[in-house]
């Protein structure tokens, strides 16, 4: 199905607010989309935070303290850098696969201690816009590893080692070549925005043991807060239009959309399937987590509906507190746009380890915004990323509960039962060719649509629990 692209700020706001929730927006014929921001470093101070890009070169094995580094290894020797909190490695060709290992170690700005070597997930092309779409064919795109949250750091060392040579058909060894243009990206998320919703959540931090004690369906909400705090402050044009598309749920510039009871949710969603809509959960807005609207491409892209939700993990590691979640999200956003060359953050929503839900890609939390989260299945779906890495570690119960609460509401707006399957058409990927009609769970894991480890085995195993809980929230028999 064809996506509609609204590029002019005024047209986007007017059209979005004029249509009932859940209906696609018509294309705006006024102004063409502005050029996308280039995937380059920016540290001129014109926007909060910064991205610094440092080229990797062939390692001097005598100086790298890496006896296993072969002659083809690349990296960056230990060095002092300006403060950063998230790190990733990118390269020129988005279609090129990095066959090898990527590792970093960083120095804490607080303790001055160096971390052990940490692996970056280097098979990250399973995320992204669908092939053939304007975003998927943009010249700004870069290949990349998943980013890793390391906290406030001021030193870095990188090593990239190719896999061992593969044996060719004639019995000779075929060397593995690393992609061209390898460089490390050091992302500083910038200071927390004053009056942001994160200020209201700092008392929510608790350790993973307490999270695991909570049973799914009994997730803990944040402390009582004024959902309009921060509303009315001076907004840029870009901030205004992003906030306006949520205008029927929150005041202009509000840091959060407040939760509603099931009855109030049904009353506020005329024209949608009843009574199977879950209660609207509390959602931290882009304003609340401090998204710089000047980074992304202007305008929004919509599809026609939301038929399924794909659950992901961000693969950024679990070493963050819930008070840092907004900083993690700003860093991922900056990495997706500045380093990888996407039009906006790829996920439609994010969830932290304490169960807080965040608005992701701009365009309205209730609307069918097209994301860049599941290569081949970004049409008529929504993407939800749980912040963390869940290949082995147990995902916090609060996060699983938040997945259920969010999908009960979002899928309920479009009349979808979280327990059933639906038919989606592949936009192209390594599991299903373009045009293939595929039966998938209404709540699926990323690996269901693409051959990937995401969302990690531990989180994937919890999706059955999330489906049942979401149906309960919707009030389904």
UniProtKB/TrEMBL annotation:
Residues 26-77, 110-146, 185-244, 260-279 are annotated as: Disordered. Residues 281-429 form the Peptidoglycan recognition protein family domain. Residues 1-18 form the signal peptide. Belongs to the N-acetylmuramoyl-L-alanine amidase 2 family. Residues 295-456 form the N-acetylmuramoyl-L-alanine amidase domain. Residues 26-40 have a biased composition (Low complexity). This is Peptidoglycan recognition protein. It comes from Streptomyces coeruleoprunus. The keyword Signal applies. Keywords: Signal. The keyword Signal applies.
